[in-house]
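Handout, section 3.2

Students often ask what a structure token actually looks like in practice. Rather than define it abstractly, here is a full record for YceI family protein. The first block is the sequence as you would receive it.
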Amino acid sequence: MKKILLITMLLVSLIVFSQEKLITKTATISVEASVPSFQPVKGTNTNVTFVLNRRTGEIASLAMMKGFRFEIALMEEHFNENYMETNTYPKAVFRGQIQDFDANSLTEGYKDFIIKGKLELHGKTKDVSVNAKITKSGPRITILTDFSVNADDYGIPIPALIKYKLDNKVNIQIIAVLK
């Protein structure tokens, strides 16, 4: 009898806990480090894992660096081999907290939030604080954010020979639709 009660309680708690977390494996991250007058340097990864705890506002995201696609194959090769060194640093990870988050207060209109956390990229971890727009439509919550990081803060090398073609400031846009 005690075993049945324990198993039942465990299953109920797992169901309740799983309803608190929303997840997608198809979030999109776009990166751009273009300099005006030169060919755009922009890549997109559409296979990003993104998790939101509805109760606490905690978020986590994982992007495999080799998942970024560029219009020009040579850019993609340089991104993987020369800059991001994806064989050594295969992933980017973000863990953070949406400030003053209350999933019940979300509507179909976007609300502004601040997300604070740690971004691990190219073997270095830095604190980041970004603005985000969040909306809820039915069971789905959508998170949009657009921010910049400096490549040198993460030890990402930009050779002097092409420094005039590639900006040290990397713009990052994230779109996550969670259900």
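Discussion prompt for tutorial groups: Residues 89 and 122 are 5 Å apart (CA to CA). How would you have guessed this from the sequence alone?
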